[in-house]
Design brief:
heterodimer, A: mainly alpha, Four Helix Bundle (Hemerythrin (Met), subunit A), elongated, B: mainly alpha, 15 helices, globular, oxidoreductase (chain B), oxidoreductase activity, acting on NAD(P)H, quinone or similar compound as acceptor (chain B)
Chain lengths: 199, 341
């Protein structure tokens, strides 16, 4: 059983790494987005192997089911000219490298000091362990305030994104549904008693 | 027998057997759902529906399947070949995968998993990739328009659907689908969740109709505006797979609505003649009724305009569900809690 899990771990990790690499090397942006979907999937599979079914399924639900659909939506709509995108490659290379080096150094610093990798491996997962409930109990009791603050920050971000992209276009003709629903017969229909001349 | 169960190769084989036991009736159900649809809509429109192949048209689905099998698979010359062929598979596979968590009796499922509700919600949302990729890979304007519509519609309705499931979660206190049904036991049909969660029941079922791209929300196909939408370039088995996925999803939404809101395998009255009928029969009867509602809706309502669909999803369903979550939350803090749980 342990062996199967190990083999599965390496299979999923290999696919994850290859697809993550293909995200940045694929020539077609639609392919990049689809490889990213594959990468998310394999990350979710790794969570499931750890017994963290809530995290794995939420990853699929949120990122694969919603975020990437919108990504694909946008990528497919845009007519992306790859030649133009590649023009600036050499010009931005030094800056990119600098950022990459800083990132790598920071990660090294974190892994050096934090006890990651020195934590004893978790024991076997007890059957019927319900980590959704465990996570919920932690989030809504112990970490209630950080959780709520994170929610408020997200809300602010949503409102900011809407406010930044909102264009008021008074010239477009759209229906005011509220007015349509609230309309009464006598506002629209006038009965006229037509009395023509007698023949 | 004991040695058999303990053998290392037995669990995967047993899983395979369970999958076959579920999928073969499901595909037969899909075949006869197409016949039922044509018959029901026929009678609603005062026609007879198919009645030539076999007794009263009973063999019509088989004739249709054979026809689709022998049709030539066409690939448009400017299409993206690989994705064009992969898209029907990507639509079909999630439609089958969701059945892994569907409970058919107390604890009886291919996989009676703890996070079943999350699983079905996550996997059911993946079918849209087949549609989007089909639309894009076809390299056809109509197909692409259909794909865009499907993507926007799915994202809009999945939120309402998720919120509706939050309500079920609050009452049942579990994500396990089998336990959700068991939490609805007690009295008769009045102890099922459709009553305390009535807005969620409606929102979930209507969102389900929208998610499966069925009339009146079938703008992704919209044959009067964009020919056949995302599958306009498909023929033969490619088309058949989209078709199978759509109908399998219809059955899935119906059975899940039954499980979540209509008490699953419990009889509507806890008295003698009703309790004699096995639970599986009740489950299938309720599912069949909801499937009939699917067809009934299709025969009754004209197709929604696209902006009306978006308005319904974002401006009507999501506020309703959020408001009712608050109502349920407050009710659970009052003495009503004893009745609701």
């Amino acid at each position: 059983m342990m062996l199967t899990t190990t083999i599965l771990f390496y299979v999923f990790s290999a696919i994850l790494l290859v697809s993550a690499l293909l995200v940045i090397t694929a020539r077609n942006p639609v392919y990049s987005a689809l490889y990213l979907v594959l990468a998310f999937f394999n990350a979710a599979a790794l969570f499931l192997l750890l017994g963290a079914e809530f995290l794995g399924l939420i990853l699929i639900l949120v990122y694969v089911g919603a975020v990437m659909v919108l990504f694909l939506f946008v990528v497919m709509m845009l007519d992306i000219n790859l030649e133009r995108l590649k023009e600036g490659f050499l010009r931005y290379l030094p800056l990119g490298l600098a950022i990459a080096i800083v990132g790598v150094l920071e990660m090294v610093a974190v892994f050096w000091t934090a006890p990651i990798g020195r934590v004893p491996a978790p024991g076997p997962i007890p059957a019927n362990a319900d980590n959704t409930r465990a996570l919920g109990e932690l989030l809504y009791t112990h970490y209630l305030y950080p959780f709520e603050i994170a929610a408020v920050i997200l809300l602010v971000a949503i409102i900011a994104a809407i406010a930044l992209t909102l264009r008021r276009r008074p010239d477009t003709k759209s229906q005011a549904v509220g007015k349509q629903v609230a309309v009464a017969v006598r506002e629209r229909l006038r009965m006229v008693d037509l009395r023509g001349p007698k023949p | 027998m004991h040695d058999l169960v303990n053998a290392a190769w037995w669990p995967p084989v047993w899983a395979l057997i369970k999958i076959i036991i579920v999928l073969i009736p499901l595909l037969l159900g899909v075949a006869y759902l197409t016949l039922a649809e044509r018959k029901v809509i026929g009678y609603i429109q005062i026609r007879l529906g198919p009645n030539r192949v076999g007794f009263r048209g009973m063999l019509q689905p088989i004739a249709d399947a054979l026809k689709l099998l022998f049709k030539e698979v066409l690939i448009p010359s400017t299409a993206n070949r690989f994705l064009f062929l992969a898209a029907p598979v990507l639509a079909f596979v999630p439609a089958m995968l969701v059945w892994a968590a569907v409970p058919f009796g107390p604890g009886v499922a291919i996989s009676n998993m703890n996070a079943g509700l999350l699983y079905v919600l996550a996997i059911a949302g993946l079918g849209v990739y087949g549609i989007i990729i089909a639309g894009w890979a076809s390299n056809s304007k109509y197909a692409f328009l259909g794909a865009m519509r499907a993507a926007a519609q799915l994202v809009a309705y999945e939120i309402a659907m998720g919120f509706a499931l939050v309500g079920v979660l609050m009452l049942a206190q579990t994500l396990n689908l089998s336990k959700i049904v068991e939490a609805q036991a007690g009295g008769g049909f009045w102890s099922w969740y459709w009553l305390p969660l009535f807005p969620f029941f409606l929102v979930y079922f209507i969102s389900g109709v929208a998610e499966t791209n069925r009339a009146p929300f079938d703008v992704a196909e919209g044959e009067s505006e964009i020919v056949a939408g995302f599958h306009v370039e498909y023929s033969g088995m490619g088309f058949a797979l989209f078709f199978l996925a759509e109908y399998a999803n219809m059955i899935f939404i119906s059975i899940l609505t039954t499980v979540l809101f209509l008490g699953g395998w419990y009889p509507p009255f806890n008295v003698a003649p009703f309790t004699w009928v096995p639970g599986l029969i009740w489950l299938l009867l309720k599912t069949a009724f909801l499937l009939y509602v699917f067809l009934w809706i299709r025969a009754t309502f004209p197709r929604y305009r696209y902006d009306q669909i978006m308005r319904l999803g974002w401006k009507v369903f999501i506020p309703i569900t959020i408001a009712w979550i608050v109502v349920v939350g407050i009710a659970l803090e009052t003495p009503l809690r004893a009745i609701l749980r």
